[in-house]
Amino acid sequence: QVQLIVSGGGLVQAGGSLRLSCTASELTFSFYAMAWFRQAPGKGLEWVSAIDSGGGRTSNVDSVKGRFTISRDNAKNTLYLQMSSLKPEDTAVYYCAKEVTEVTWGEYDYWGQGTQVTVSS
Predict the structure, then answer these.
(1) What is the full DSSP assignment across 67-104?
(2) How many CA atoms lie within 13 A of 82 on its CB side?
(3) What is the pLDDT along the chain (121 residues), one digit of tens a residue?
(4) Cβ distance 39 to 90 under 8 Å?
């Protein structure tokens, strides 16, 4: 059974950094694009960032451009989200998700369990 295990969340002051990881098992990780989502308190799920299967093409929501970097290590079956210059509005539960194809198509079939990121002002 495919599993996506998310780690790396926590409490950080505004302006600080965190790196999230999403490690996949029972999956040919290098075959699939991946994405990060987040859900802030009282709000809906928001797409944050995506990366294709080879890691050569990435995209980000405007609100995190220049601050967040998505990357992957296919040898380690792991997806990352490096978050810098964090703002209180970045506070949310962050999830990783697996695309159904090698490109960022926008259709996801497996999700990680989520990790809380809290940014204090």
Answers:
(1) TEEEEEEGGGTEEEEEE-S--GGG-EEEEEEEESSSS-
(2) 6
(3) 999 999 999 999 999 999 999 999 999 999 999 999 999 999 999 999 999 999 999 999 999 999 999 999 999 999 999 999 999 999 999 999 999 998 888 899 999 999 999 999 9
(4) no
Closest CA to 46 of 68, 77, 16: 68
CB 12 within 8 A of CB 19: no
How are strands ordered across the β-sheet holding 68-73? 3-7, 18-25, 78-83, 68-73
How far apart are the C-alpha atoms of 103 and 106, rounded to whole Å?
A: 9
List the beta bridge partners of residue 59. Answer: 50
